[in-house]
Amino acid sequence: MTSKALENGRRSKRHIFHKAKVNRSHAGNAVVFTCILILGAFMALPFVYALGSAFKPLNELFLYPPRLLPQNPTLDNFIGLWTLMKSSWVPMSRYIFNTLLITAAGSAGQIILASMCAFPLAKHPFPGNKFIFRVIFLSLMFHASATAIPTYIIMAKLHMLDTYWALILPACASSFGLYLMKQFIEQINNAVLEAAEIDGANIWQTYIRIVMPMVKPAWLTLMVFSVQSLWNIGSSTYIYSEELKTFSYAVSQVVAGGVARTGTGMAISVIMMVVPITVYLITQSSVMQTMASSGVKE
Amino acid sequence: MNARQEYTIKLMKRYRMSYVMMLPYLLLFLLFVVVPVFVAIFFGFTDFDMINTPSFIGFSNYKKMILQDNLFLTAFKNTLLLATITGPVGYLLSLFLAWFVSDLSPKLRALLTALFYAPTLCNVYLVWQLIFSGDSSGFLNSWLLKLGVINTAKQWLTDSDILLGVLIFILLFTSMGTGFLTLVAGFQNTDTSLFEAGAVDGIRNRWQELWYITLPSIRPQLMIAAVQSITSAFGIGTAIDLLCGNPSTDYKAWTIMNHINDVGNVRFEVGYACALSTLLFIFMVAANRVIQKLISKVGN
Description:
Oligomer: heterodimer
Number of domains of chain B: 2
Helix content of chain B: over 70%
Radius of gyration of chain B: 24 Å
Number of strands of chain A: 0
Shape of chain B: flat
Radius of gyration of chain A: 24 Å
Distance between the termini of chain A: 37 Å
Strand content of chain B: under 5%
Helix content of chain A: 55-70%
CATH superfamily of the largest domain in chain B: MetI-like
Number of domains of chain A: 2
Largest sheet of chain A: none
CATH superfamily of the largest domain in chain A: MetI-like
Distance between the termini of chain B: 47 Å
CATH architecture of the largest domain in chain B: Orthogonal Bundle
CATH class of the largest domain in chain A: Mainly Alpha
Shape of chain A: globular
CATH topology of the largest domain in chain B: MetI-like fold
Strand content of chain A: under 5%
Order of helices and strands of chain A: HHHHHHHHHHHHHH
CATH topology of the largest domain in chain A: MetI-like fold
CATH class of the largest domain in chain B: Mainly Alpha
Largest sheet of chain B: none
Order of helices and strands of chain B: HHHHHHHHHHHHHHH
C-alpha cells in the first residue's frame, strides 16, 4: 500500500464522508447531510412508530398527545397476539405456514428457473436470442397487476385458482429477476466457460459447477426481491379459501379489528417487517454487487 | 434452402440443449406474462362476462370509456396525476438520495441505503394509516391539535379535499423501489479517476461534476431505474385501497388499476376490464419509451 492510500484510509476513519473527493465544499456537505437527516427521519418514522407502539402498555397507547417511544416497555401486545392467534377461526399458524411455503417455493423456483434461462441467454448465440431478450425487456415496462384480469381467466382455464400454484408460478416467471440474472452472468469471463467445455463439461455441468457458484450474489438478490414480493402478498383475487390465505392478509384483518387492536396490530406489523428486512440486511453487499451490473446496455 | 437458412438450422441444432434449458422459465413467462397481454387485447374487443359466450363488439368498449364512463375519466386523470408526480419526483428523490449516500463512508452508506429502501421491502401502509388516522387521538392529529396548528381533527385519508395530497406524500416515501438500489450501486462504481481528470478540466462544483461526469457514466443504471419507477407509478392501486379504502371518498384517488379491479372482479364486465388493461399497458410502454429517449440525452 502506498503512503497516499494509507493516508486516505486514515482520513476515512475520521470523517463520515469517506472519499476525500474533489469538488466538495464544507457548506455543501452540511446541506447534503441535513437533507439526508430530514428524509431519513421521515423514512424511519413508520418503523419507529410501529416498533415503539408494539412495546407500549395499553395506557400509553392512548396517551394524549401520543409519544413515539414507550416509557415502560412491555411484551403485553405480543402476548395478546398469541392469545388472539389461538382463538382465531383458522389457526394463525396456518396463515404463517402458507406464507412461508409460498415464499420459499416461489423464491426457489424463480432462482432456479431464471438462472437456467439466463445462462444460455447471456452466453450462447443461438438463433432467437436477441428476440427473446427484447420481449423480456419489454415486459419490464408494465406492471403485472395491469394484466391481472386476463391472468385470472388463464388460471381459471388451468384450474389453478384457489391453489398455492396461483401465487407460486407467476412469482417464478418474474422478468426482473431473469433480467438481473442475465446481466450478471454476462460478466463471467468467456475463457472460464470455454475452459470447462474443453475439459469435457456439458452445458448442464457448466451451469451447475461453474456458473451457479459464480453468480451467488445474483441469486441472493433474486431471493431478496422474491421474498419482498411474496412475503407481502395480502388478499389475492386468485385465492378464496380461508385456509389458503396468507399471513399478510391475517395481519390486515387483525389491524382492521379497530382501535382496541392497535397494540396487537403493531406487534404483528413488527413481526411482518422483520423477515424481509433481515433477509435484505444479510445479503445487502450481494444485492449491491448485482444491481451494479443491472444497467441497460445501449 | 439457401445458405443462411442452412446456417441458422445448424446453429439451432448445435444449441438445442440451450433451448431445453430455457424452456421451463419461458413456458411460465409465456403463460403469465405474454399470453395475458394478448388475452387482454383479444377480449378487449368482446363483451365477455365469464358466463356467456363472448361476442365480438369492435371498438365499443373503447368508445364506452370515453363517452359513457365518467368514472373512467376520473380514474384516467388520477392515474396520470399520480404517475406524473410520484414517477418523476420519486425518481429524482431516489437519484439525489443515492448521490448523497454515495459520498458517505461504506458502513453509513449501507445503513442509510437499508433505511431508505426499507419502506419498499415491507408493507408499511398500515402504520402510515395509523399515523394519519382521522381520530383526534391519531398520531399526527393529536400533535397538530396540541400545537394549535389545527382546531379540529383532520380526516387525512378520507377528506376528499386533502386525501390525494396526503396519498402522494405517503407514496413518495414508499416508492423508492429497486431503482434506488440500482442507482446507489451505480454511483458506488463510478470511476474516481474521472473526477480528478474533471477537476483538472475545469469542473468547479459537485453539480457540474454530477451533470458532466457522474450521470453520463451511470446512464445504463439511470435507464433501468427509470423503467422501474415509471412501471410502478402507473401500477398504483393496491396501496390506495389500503390507505384510503376502496373506493376512496368521492373517488378522489380512484386510479385505472382500481377501475380495472372494480369492473373485472366486482362487476364481471371482463371484456371491458380487458380493454382498460390494454389501454393501461399501452400507456406504460409508451411512457417508458419516451423517458428512455430523454435519458439517452443526459449530459450531452
